[in-house]
Write a structure and sequence with these properties.
Layout: H1 3-10, E1 11-12, E2 15-16, H2 25-36, H3 60-69, E3 76-77, H4 78-85, H5 89-101, E4 105-110, E5 115-119
Antiparallel strand pairs: 1-2, 3-5, 4-5
Protein name: 40S ribosomal protein S25
Pfam families: Ribosomal_S25 (PF03297)
Family: Belongs to the eukaryotic ribosomal protein eS25 family.
Length: 122
């Protein structure tokens, strides 16, 4: 296209759009250098939750507490025992199986991933 044709395309009615002035190479380089100094964004680590210290070997005190308190719960599951008694999940599963064998609690649902028990009423 010729220069006159380009200028004619820019004209709208009697109004003419201003021609954009190109920055010099030095100005472009300075702008790029100033922008690159910012660096990468620092991602926050978020809130770090403290790791719970659950016991994995039962002592006599904790065993007595399981025998005394758990049969009084209305809803009994592995997660309830882990949360309330601060014991590991494998210890909680063994304790629930033992309490069911003793007839102290009864099973409501025995799915492979979620065991739900309730107190045994006489």
């Amino acid at each position: 296209m010729r220069k006159e044709e380009k200028q004619q395309q820019l004209m709208v009615g009697n109004w003419r759009m201003p021609v954009k002035v190109q920055a010099t190479k030095a100005a472009k380089a300075a702008a790029a250098a100033a922008g690159s100094k910012k660096g990468k964004k620092k991602w926050s680590k978020g809130k770090v939750k403290d790791r719970a210290e659950h016991i994995v070997i039962l002592d006599q005190e904790k065993y007595d507490r399981i025998l005394k308190e758990v049969p009084t719960y209305r809803y009994i599951s592995v997660s309830v025992l882990v949360d309330r008694l601060k014991i590991g999940g494998s210890v909680a599963r063994v304790a629930l199986a033992q309490l069911e064998r003793d007839g102290v609690i009864k099973a409501v649902s025995k799915h492979s991933t979620q065991l739900i028990y309730t107190r045994a009423t006489a």
